[in-house]
Amino acid sequence: MKKMRKAVSILLAGCLVLGLSACGGTKNAAQDAVSQTAAGQKEDGGTAEPAADNKTADTGEKVEISFSMAAYSNEVDGWTAMIDEANRQLEAEGKNIAIKINKVPCTGWPEYYQKVITQMAGGSAPDIGRIAESYMPMLINKGQVVDLTDYMANDFDMSQYYEKTFENSAFADGRYYGLPSGLNYYLVYYNKDMFDAAGLEYPSADWNKASSFEEYKNMAKALTGGEGATKTYGFSAGPYMAAVGMFNKSLGGNNVFDDNGAPTMNDSVSKEVYAWFDEMLRVDYSMPRPTDTKVMGAFDMFKAGRLGMILDGTWWLGAIKDIKDFNVGIAAIPSGTGGEAFTSQFVDSFVIFKGSKHEAEAWEAVKAIMSTPAFQALAKTGVGGVPVAKDVANSVIDESLGSAVDENGKKCAEEGMNHTIKVPYNSYYQEADQKVNNVMDEWLLGKISSDQFAENVQQILVDYAAKDASQ
């Protein structure tokens, strides 16, 4: 994810958007909020004019670099502020380069991607842009983005950033094809008052000695009570592939796929994780099921004091400070055996698109966008998730949580950035993941066992892998 008051009030909305986009989710954002564009900016998604071939920064003429972004109404101000600051940095450095924003109206990343590649096919490719992590494998495989590895080796100090954020889907076969635009990852938020009333110790905030599956299950059971609309639940977590993969890792298993890329979601480790969920869902009834969250979502239940613990993303950081009815703690996510815990990261990327007529200048523009002042400008708007620049990220977390969380909890939230693992996106992961989520209720509602669901997940992945291999 700075002494930035504005950031704390609206980080929730921006971070939520990033979390969804990283997962490939569709956004239904109104487009009328972006109807007015700054001078020189495009918003039709297809008419950005490429700069003349013979113009370079060395000639003394200003080179315009087109920056393509999805024009979601709740994000425009944030990315615009970042680009404006990047332009100030370029000017201060005496670079004859100006970044112009090309706003692409769209309802989600699939439409955005199609519009960008249409521009590329028509010879009017944007120079640079931001793209969801789930699309990076496809962009790399199709040769639609520039390999940045050599640029970075000669002219980029990665130590200024959380380096694990570079280990995302823009990093393939030892090469870098994008730079991280922001970060979201999982944490456990818990109701300290419920723990105190039950006489329970808080879950561990130490990522290297996290509370185990068994400890979380026991805490969840002890925090559960009541009936009907007033029932309180102990723990909520979504058993999505990104979550199961990180839990598998803490048990020494695979993160969805083995080292050869073959799916392993029906192995003994994956089944152990699904069985852990199953005990809380159908034995202890300490975890709400889809029917329980139909009227009130899990995070709303947490805010209402009806849920003791929730495993969810950093996109909720800005909402925590608004909870006034009880004290909130932050803990490391569960670890299978109580050792190191791992948390899945969601990292979108800044890229240079193939077809840019000013690749060298585009790299200078990307560097300016990655500058500390540019990340500070973005953070003030609450857009983009947790900044990946170290000197910006920690203060954003501190300001976002305010006095709602003690220093131990803030430290835990910050330390989580050092325990992230990448979601193993490949050319079919996103589509397969959506299909898995669509059939998940069959298990959550008790129609099939957790082992049967694991087998179903495996078959979905195997089918997609076979289809992918045949293409």
From TrEMBL:
Domain of life: Bacteria
Extent of the signal sequence: 1-29
Higher taxonomy: Bacteria, Bacillati, Bacillota, Clostridia, Lachnospirales
Originating organism: Eisenbergiella tayi
Database matches in Gene3D superfamilies: Periplasmic binding protein-like II
Spans annotated as Disordered: 36-59
Record bears the keyword Nucleotide-binding: no
Stated name of the protein: Putative ABC transporter substrate-binding protein YesO
Keyword annotations of the record: Signal
